[in-house]
Amino acid sequence: MLSLSRTAFLEGVDQRRFCRAQRTPAAKVKAGVVRCVAAGERKTRNAEILIEKSADMVDPKSAVSGGVKDVYGEDRATEEHHITPWSLSVASGYSLLRDPHHNKGLAFTEKERDAHYLRGLLPPTCLSQELQVKKLMHNLRQYQVPLQRYMALMDLQESNERLFYKLLIDNVEELLPVVYTPTVGEACQKYGSIFRRPQGLYISLKEKGKILEVMKNWPEKAIQVIVVTDGERILGLGDLGSQCLPVTIDVGTNNEKLLKDEFYIGLRQKRATGQEYAELMEEFMRAVKQNYGEKVLIQFEDFANHNAFSLLEKYSKTHLVFNDDIQAGTGIAELIALEMSKQTSTPIAECRKRIWLVDSKGLIVKSRFETLQHFKKPWAHEHEFVRDISEAVKVIKPTVLIGSSGVGRTFTKEVVETMASFNEKPIILALSNPTSQSECTAEEAYTWSKGRAIFASGSPFNPVEYEGKSFTPGQANNAYIFPGFGLGLIMSGAIRVHDDMLLAASEALASQVTQENFEKGSIYPPFKNIRKISAQIAADVAAKAYELGLASHLPRPQNLVKYAESCMYSPIYRQYR
């Protein structure tokens, strides 16, 4: 395995073989210098790599077993000078153990240790990947603080990528609350303190005018999905594979606490708005297409509403984009209306009248129409204005109550008891994340409804015992839908996102809920089956893309579920020659 890189070194190479490959006389190797050309430069840049460490170069004054002398005074002479940190990377020996994409740790076989110069660099034991997973789970369970588990997992991802994903896949129900909500919320809040090494691109106002150049610095070229945030309403991105690029657009912050924090690693200025913000986003969206092509999928994540809706509206016409926050906010209402219209053959405008929205000011009604944001206007119905949610529940008498505002504790005892007073099985969905922002807890929903509520939440809650019966609350978060949704778009080569695709994904998820799940009080399938669930969602989304004429990968695969499974990332170790 031989590759050119900017950040590694030459080691473990047969010198004569290397010299032949580079057409460099062996005499020059013996003299201690190999000349190589760094890849990707328009002009030739020669880098000299010292590979000989003879006895007369050892410094006897070194504190630990001697060190290499600065024979020619090069280190001292160049302390104040600029140098070029380009070198040749060989995925063998010590550098292989430091490469997270290829490192297998103690799972390297005896043959691989011989072939790749690993003898003496590892303890003698060879472990299977399964035993590595078992050992790591044992270690993780020793941590009492969730953030410590999160940091340990991030360290693993940075040292052994396949083992990280194998661990996560095999123990997804236990580890999801660590790499996702609620722990990731704390990780975001303390990001500046726990930051170790970058795992994505950081594009700030300082890069304005050269965003395309910045994108070319990212080492992975086969990018199919970009998850981008401007950090204004952070809840967490989750974890991403190598064909998925996380991007932070840093336009400053209005958080005074962060601006005064000496450890804050973001752009230390007030948040940019208006034309300055729009121009930066326009340059970013243009650069994405230039660098990764027309069909790269862009997910807008954790943008505040005033930007989220305008960005989605503008770029959905020219890019393959979606935003799970708003297409799971007012988007929930629209999808419910679409499904009602589909099942009843009722005009969608009439279906919307059966759905009521409450915002920070109160019930959305016609008398507020002129002051409403444009995305709320379809939901303004004829009714007297009601200021708070408790009163709205009393007068509207809904069968389903859905919270997705990010404001915690809004489903009070009075609200839940009122829902239970006119519904035999009130449906209570407290979807806001993290746990502290949940509209109510599972225990509160079951207790206040006297065990009759059908409950689900965005953040996980433990099973609840009520009057001798056990209830297992479902977790309703985007980890169910959007990995499979994104896969369906990619494998079909979709050129645009259509609402019918989101509806197809929702229907695919609902179809996998069993009667046994219902009897336990859960309206979602077990998350341990997420890869099977995601394959079915991907297949149904792809089928809808083909049906709508929006798919570009032709011909259509005969079995979309099997094709989806074949497209999924496998964390199993590869065997090296």
From TrEMBL:
Residues engaged in binding a divalent metal cation: 301-302, 325
The entry's keywords: Metal-binding
GO molecular function: malate dehydrogenase (decarboxylating) (NADP+) activity; metal ion binding; NAD binding
InterPro entries: Aminoacid_DH-like_N_sf, Malic_N_dom, Malic_N_dom_sf, Malic_NAD-bd, Malic_OxRdtase, NAD(P)-bd_dom_sf
Span of domain Malic enzyme N-terminal: 157-316
PANTHER family linked: MALIC ENZYME-RELATED, NADP-DEPENDENT MALIC ENZYME 3
Family: Belongs to the malic enzymes family.
Entry protein name: NADP-dependent malic enzyme, chloroplastic
